[in-house]
From TrEMBL, chains A, B:
<dbReference type="Pfam" id="PF16925">
    <property type="entry name" value="TetR_C_13"/>
</dbReference>
<feature type="domain" description="HTH tetR-type">
    <location>
        <begin position="4"/>
        <end position="64"/>
    </location>
</feature>
<dbReference type="InterPro" id="IPR036271">
    <property type="entry name" value="Tet_transcr_reg_TetR-rel_C_sf"/>
</dbReference>
<keyword id="KW-0804">Transcription</keyword>
<keyword id="KW-0238">DNA-binding</keyword>
<protein>
    <submittedName>
        <fullName>Transcriptional regulator, TetR family</fullName>
    </submittedName>
</protein>
<dbReference type="GO" id="GO:0003677">
    <property type="term" value="F:DNA binding"/>
</dbReference>
<dbReference type="InterPro" id="IPR001647">
    <property type="entry name" value="HTH_TetR"/>
</dbReference>
<dbReference type="InterPro" id="IPR009057">
    <property type="entry name" value="Homeodomain-like_sf"/>
</dbReference>
<keyword id="KW-0805">Transcription regulation</keyword>
<dbReference type="InterPro" id="IPR011075">
    <property type="entry name" value="TetR_C"/>
</dbReference>
<dbReference type="Pfam" id="PF00440">
    <property type="entry name" value="TetR_N"/>
</dbReference>
<feature type="DNA-binding region" description="H-T-H motif">
    <location>
        <begin position="27"/>
        <end position="46"/>
    </location>
</feature>
Length: 190, 190
């Protein structure tokens, strides 16, 4: 098996370290040390920590279980449920730590770094649109009688999910995830 | 007017700087520089940055408009609406920046600093209990027919609010707050 390129080693390490420590507490040296490459090699591959963070956000997007929203022959609300179940399981597997890279970057870096803010906004928009499409299907099928627009409901649910993560990082007891699943699926998507 | 004590100057500066920069990007020197006091004076008053952060969280709690939840002669849902309206106005006044100190600390520091995690958990519990009490009143008055427990609804709404802030820091267009108010008050608290 060919050895991963230095660039790939840096991206893999950054994915792990940004997720674990957040944006501000994760410096280039932590990333290159974790990748096992010389710090000097970093700037051969990336212009800045910020540029690497954008690559990590794209990579993170590929792990957000969006494919579960499009499983064939599955009812829309079941797909939505499987999507959030998978997101929840990822967080539980990390002992309620690390959170969501998008939410972390929004909280830590969006105020000060325009490219990060734009990256998070784009990620949330794509994710929100994917959720809205499923909610529209559920409304068309009569599974959701709530007549609020799919876009509003999707934005609300996406944000509520991000907030449930914020709650769990403090409480670590599953209560915020439980409240999310109960209210999202039994009340909001009624 | 007596000059504020050095301790007070440090707490005031820390309140501002923690809110503006978050926990990790705000060091002791930034705080003492902002307070206009020598860095060396810090440790006469606080054991650590962490200890100061706990004081700031208490101070922040006093600004969270909890009194609006208890305005006399006002319907429960109106009080709840005024509470979130005031929280939203604070964020809009900062141009959708800075976020919520609790959410910021939960995201940035809860994983690594047990006392911060415990502080955020306590703050969320107190806030959630205050919201739950109002929802219980609204249910008893027949203003909310949703039969989910007040505790579950309160936890969900609190988290959804925190998530709406995460969304606004990326989008800065009011869409997440609008979705929150619409779905929270027209759907969840139906």
């Amino acid at each position: 098996m060919p050895r991963a390129s230095v660039r790939e080693q840096i991206v893999d390490a950054a994915f792990e370290q940004f997720h674990r420590h957040g944006y501000n507490a994760c410096g280039v040296k932590l990333i290159t040390d974790s990748a096992g490459v010389p710090k000097g090699s970093f700037y051969n591959h990336f212009e800045s920590k910020e540029a690497l963070a954008l690559v990590v956000m794209d990579r993170y997007g590929e792990t957000r279980h969006l494919e579960k929203l499009q499983t064939p022959k599955t009812a829309p609300l079941t797909r939505l449920r499987h999507h959030f179940d998978a997101l929840a399981q990822d967080i539980v597997d990390f002992g309620y730590e690390r959170g969501c890279v998008y939410g972390n970057f929004s909280t830590e870096a969006a105020d000060h770094i325009p490219a990060i803010r734009e990256g998070v906004k784009t990620a949330f928009d794509l994710w929100g649109n994917a959720i809205a499409a499923v909610i529209r299907e559920a409304q068309d099928a009569g599974d959701v009688t709530n007549t609020q627009s799919p876009e509003t409901l999707a934005r609300f649910l996406l944000n509520s999910w991000e907030g449930a993560i914020v709650g769990e990082r403090a409480a670590k007891d599953g209560s915020s995830f439980a409240a999310f699943f109960t209210v999202a699926f039994e009340v909001v998507l009624h």
